[in-house]
Write a structure and sequence with these properties.
By secondary structure, the protein is of the alpha+beta class. The chain has two domains: about 80 residues, no CATH class; about 120 residues, Alpha-Beta Complex (Aspartate Aminotransferase, domain 1), CATH 3.90.1150.10. Helix content is about 40%, strand content about 10%. It is built from seven helices and six strands, in the order βββαααββαααβα. The strands form two sheets. The chain has a three-stranded mixed beta sheet, with no helix packed on it. A three-stranded antiparallel beta sheet has the order 4-5-6. Helix 3 runs parallel beside helix 7 and helix 4 packs across helix 7. The chain is elongated.
Length: about 210
């Protein structure tokens, strides 16, 4: 089984030749309302029903279906797939603009995302400034970043992905995750870099 919530609309892929037994995704990641998702499975894969009862959804999940949410998901998926190439090029340009602006403003930073990673998500460490401090400071200016994924940002053990990459604890503590989308503009990205530069100059010394 593959969790593909960060795939649709971000990178082209095909289910057919992959050999994957099952994959799942979440509607709100592609612009559909929350509360709807999907599971794709090949014919050789069998699974036990999640909920027993009326036998809806091929007897895998009984319960009254929600046609409006299903229709919204279908439209959102079609739109995401149709605009994958354009959206990826746009977010890749935003990523470049953001990193160039940080460099222009002489903000000390370490880009931890590999070169081959998706441009929509960046992991960046700002030495001397706790990631949690920067998250709250940016939030006060209506700029929203995080210290990790929504499912792991609050866990006490730290970011396991960065740990697996061999990044030391101090650098991890100074890391933030910045997510970009096709709805962001270059002006927003430049303003974010400028806000980080201003906050770094004010807060980094107090966090050393």
């Amino acid at each position: 089984h593959f969790d593909t919530v960060q795939t649709w609309g971000k990178t082209p892929f095909s289910f057919q030749p992959s050999g994957v037994d099952m994959l799942s995704g979440s509607g709100h990641k592609v612009g559909a309302p929350k509360g709807i998702g999907w599971l794709v499975r090949n014919r050789r894969s069998t699974i036990e029903p999640l909920i027993h009862g009326g036998g809806q959804q091929n007897r895998l999940r009984s319960g009254t279906e929600n046609p409006p949410l299903a229709a919204a998901l279908a439209v959102a998926l079609e739109n995401a797939v149709e605009h994958t190439t354009h959206n990826t090029a746009h977010t890749n340009r935003l990523r470049t603009v953001f990193l160039d602006e940080l460099a222009l403003l002489n903000v000390p930073h370490i880009l931890q995302s590999p070169d081959e990673s998706l441009p929509q998500i960046m992991s960046i460490s700002f030495p001397g400034l706790q990631g949690e401090t920067l998250v709250h400071a940016l939030s006060a200016e209506s700029i929203y970043v995080s210290t990790g994924s929504a499912c792991g940002a609050k866990k006490k053990h730290g970011n396991r992905v960065l740990q697996a990459m061999g990044i030391d604890r101090e650098q991890i503590l100074c890391s933030v995750r910045i997510s970009l989308s096709e709805n962001n503009t270059e002006n927003e990205i430049i303003q974010t870099a400028q806000a980080i530069a201003r906050l770094y100059g004010r807060l980094a010394r107090t966090n050393r």
